[in-house]
What does this fold into?
Amino acid sequence: MRTISPKAIIIFALYMGLKLLQTWIYAWAGSMIVAESDNFKNEIYTSGWQALGNKSVRHYIGIMLVQRPIALKACGYIPISINLFTSVRY
It folds into this structure.
């Protein structure tokens, strides 16, 4: 039977830790993008845009308010977020 050296175990643990950190960074960035997109939409809504005199500006703001929030997606389907990171089973 072949034994595994302590050096190999440490290198493997460091590698796995860095890969988890890399995945967490992408998940955190995806969550922050969605949160800031929602905050932007809320700020537009509370800015008093209804009182603007220009009808076309009110129309464009209305279109902005009904759009989906910006999100990072894996393969165009799965939104990348902290919730996805914590729900993945090892």
